[in-house]
Amino acid sequence: MRHFRRGGALATVLLLLLAATPSTSVAGSPGPSRYHNPVSAAVGDTFADPVIVRGDDGFWYAYGTTDPLREGEHEFHRVPTARSADLVDWTYVGDAFGPDQRPPYAAPGAAFWAPDVRRVGDQWVMYVTVTDTIVSAEGSDYAIGAATAPSPTGPWTFAAQPVVAPRPGGGGGYLWTIDPSQFTDVDGRNYLYYGSYYGGISVTELSPDGLRAVGAPTLVAVDNKFEGSYVLRHDGWYYLFASTANCCAGPATGYSVQVGRARSPRGPFTDRDGVALTASRAGGTPVLTQNGNRWIGTGHNGFVTDLSGQDWIVYHAIDRADPYLDEPFGINERPMLLDRLDWIDGWPTVNAGAGPSDGLRPAPVTTGRVDERFDTTDLARWRRTGQWRVADGRLTGSGALTSRTTVGGDVRAEADLRLTGATSAGVTLDDRVAVRVVGGRLVASDGRRSASAPLPAGFAPADRHNLAIEVRGRQLVAELSPARLGDQLAVVSLRLDRPAAGPVGLTATGGPAEFDNVSVARLYQPAKRAVPEPRVTGAPLRAYSDEFDDGLDGDWRWVREDPAATVSGGALRWPVQAADLTGTGNTAGVLLRDAPTGDYVVETTVTLDLGEETVRNYQQAGLVAYVDDDRFARLAQVAIWNTRQVEYGYELPYAGQPVYGGSIVGTPATTTWLRLAHHVDRATGEHEFRAGSSRDGRTWTWGAVWTFPADTTPRIGLVAHGGAEPAVTAEFDYLRFYR
Fold this sequence. Notes:
One of its GO terms (biological process) is carbohydrate metabolic process. Pathway: Glycan metabolism; L-arabinan degradation. One of its GO terms (molecular function) is hydrolase activity, hydrolyzing O-glycosyl compounds. Pfam families: Glyco_hydro_43 (PF04616). By secondary structure, the chain is an all-beta fold. It is built from no helices and 48 strands. The radius of gyration is 27 Å and the shape is globular. It starts with 33 loop residues before the first strand and ends with a strand.
């Protein structure tokens, strides 16, 4: 994600040397049982736009965007890289690129943002935003570059040409060709997703080596709402994760992650309500958003699966008490966070909907009952038939190799494998269940019963792939992938005769095969229910509510009264003003009333015909929680360029001036229901307001939480402002408070 600045000259950095560093066996070493965010604290104060891959050596590698790592450092790291044995404790190991290393099309001083690292064929490829190229002297002519390496640790070599070159924009300048993310489909085709607010998110097919865009791109997410894409395949669906709102507004940053799904990598991607991510009234189901604790601006995600099969989301966030790396209004401090990613009713959500964690949490599973990295030549823990040998941290041979450790129950087994001459190779469980790569197929068998799935036509068995097998009760699911990143080449399911209990084995026939990173761990237990969302019970609180049946009741108070606002026919009608509340102007009217003490939910219904597709910046109407002109949270349906969104804006005073940012909640209709759920934090006394919206008054989408200090008394009100051209009137049916 961009910082809206050009990269300056980068200081000398440490080149990666890990390719020559021997790996250390962690077999049998238990990982941490608990952890807390941010996981990048030992690496730096900031580590933005993070992604994680598992290397051939069994370690995990994380990559971040060009920034200084520490407060006061002022040294811009060109894709800082960190290593971990357990996904929790990370060590900085250097930068991917040296101070003078850049592709030939990059301008001097170009920065590298939002790296994405994948295995493509027999090499690793890093896709990265190149912020400045030689196409334009004005800069901001973004391109997507690629660099290749034999391992995740480098050394990295840039391709001579960009994967996606700078694209002139119809509105002037260059489209934001940033935030790349690669995906390999079950047919073996490679795709690249890229783009941002100016131009939207597109997907293009890549050449087999992953270094060139081929064919015509397809728009998969509308402009002016989404960026930071990440795609994975789960249960036959393709899920497009994308970040929305502003990444970098300091203490008012409301960045969050939403998702849509499709049956094709080219879309159309739709949200849980069936609304397309390409629509003017753009869809998007929330996956991750701030919940009122220390973390705000939770976005730009990657994805990783631990050895138990549990999925995790890696992302950056901002500590609202320490939002900038150094001086106020400079570089936003965005450390790397890790949280559990659950799948409930077919949709991903973080911590079952609870959002970012702050405090001790169960750690990822990164070791197992069987955990073999083959870092020594000792095979005493295995029984051998055939010829096997260990060299350079890998096992090679043919025949069968069976662990002396017995496993049972619900388990996940993994192995990295290459068929270097074998016609069949794979993993066995209980001496009877086998999953093999054979004859261009992934085959699972249990005695005489079997199931299989085809591998891509261009599948190269001599390339390294990951084989993962999950057994839950009598159900087996196996998948083969290049990089364990939701990019399966084949998935096969088989109903077993009985649960598997016994040793795990490796098998190769017809010639040798190579194995590494063999593990068996207890299978994760999936979350089945989401955490409860705010609900209303009983009748509205009559003393605080107004149905607008007979003018405004006596409890309303104006800030800058607008005489054009009238009540008739059971509705408040308010022509949208050519005014606003943000910044220092403070010219808009605000209609307010006192709120009840304690926890409550306030609701209104607003009809506002903003049309579609056309530019109507920034007409809006909705609810507001208001302390004063420089401290408020505004929930409104709003026109943002050609899109129509439900924005949850927030302004607060910081370092002597007002700072405004916001988050995006749901999809508006012409008539949209809006709610703010108020809660007082028992520990801090802070006022927490969570935003919700609905298109029909029955199905609600809940989003971000903004907070107010304990010593404030927020009132609740209505607003209608942002621009009077073309003339449009907001109509409010009621304002109701509920317990």
